[in-house]
Amino acid sequence: MSSAVEIYKKKTRKSAQVFEKSKKFHVNGVSHNIRFFKPYPFVTKSAKGKFISDIDGNRYTDYWMGHWSLILGHAAPPVASLVKKQLPSCWMHGTVNEMTVLFSEVIQNAVSVAEKIRYVSTGTESTMYAVRIARAVTGKKIIAKVDGGWHGYTTDLLKSVNWPFEQPESLGLTDDSHIVSIPYNDLEKSVQILQSVKDDLAGVIIEPVLGGGGCIPATREYLSGIQEFAHKNNALFLLDEIVTGFRFSFGCMYTSMRLDPDIVTLGKIVGGGFPVGVICGKEEVMKISDTQTHTRFDRSYVGGGTFSANPITMTSGRAMLQFLKKNPGVYKKIGKLGDLARSELGKIFNDKAVITGMGSLFMPHFLANGVTEVKNASDAAKCNIDLLHQYHFEMIARDGIFFLPGKLGAISYAHDESDIKGLIEASSRFSDSLK
Fold this sequence. Notes:
Helix content: 25-40%
Structural class: alpha/beta
CATH superfamily of the largest domain: Type I PLP-dependent aspartate aminotransferase-like (Major domain)
CATH topology of the largest domain: Aspartate Aminotransferase, domain 2
CATH architecture of the largest domain: 3-Layer(aba) Sandwich
Radius of gyration: 22 Å
Strand order of the largest sheet: 4-12-11-10-7-5-6
Largest sheet: 7 strands, mixed
CATH class of the largest domain: Alpha Beta
Distance between the termini: 16 Å
Number of strands: 16
Shape: globular
């Protein structure tokens, strides 16, 4: 029987050639670190619905879905039709446009904390500005984040992302002494750490579901406890809902958990497949960036960027959210498929793996090093990550099922029950091979 690598190389000869050329121009051949996987990533030609196709003619059922941003699938018609209408009127203005106002109206009606909004082009920028605002409003310096929390490449938050969490994440960082890290879903230990820095604590930023850290939901008790500590100590409570915003229902996850964040960051789904980052905040917090009422000596500079609030992103984002609002069945369908995937994968892998996630998100963790449950990024990191990569790569090579190796899976509205059955069958074969 041929190995998965041999099968993959035979199927992706053109990709191998183009990727060799890509390496001449791009660091490691890619423009985003996580897009590389061994022996080389296939080169995409097109994508539509639930499928992504490479230049060799292979078609894959996609569970990566554009970094989990494409909740309706690739090239979703409700979004594409409105974008096509906008293109003749220009795709870049660099000035105020009505599409931004219309889009913001939809967001504000769905996200109560969005009393004031600023747009940027990436999630990284949105968390960078959220942290800056927290420091400006409070006059303090320390920001707390969780072990394994991923908030983009912003220098302010590039700490304790990967195991072991005390190791530096990058060269070139000048000072990370004003970032402290707390253990996810462990309120007692987190409060102990926060207590030691409370006098200079500007804010705490948390994902309600760890994305890169293992697809692990936070408990409501944990989030409400951290929020309570932050507010009692005049610090801001920041929720990074770039992954979770509009993923499980129309709006943000904090609403269902009865939380009261000061700032929420959004991205991914709300862009409709185009670049976006959103800082949503209470007016009393966001006014610190108002250049009409503050001078450069007492304001927080939240500038956006050249392409912020461009008419195409504003149009695609509004089209996406309007469709989701009018079609609540989207969430029912993808949530049901997610439940099925987690349940059946749990049966297949039994005592070999724990399946985390919620709604339409799911991720297996192959147990190792004495781990029996996965409650935080430390548990996830101690699992057999090499086996997870192997599992994902086997499905790419043998079954035409695409997960970015090592990352969680996201189900879109374009998927159906037959896709989940195909995933289960492929997973069952992999599980049998482990025996």
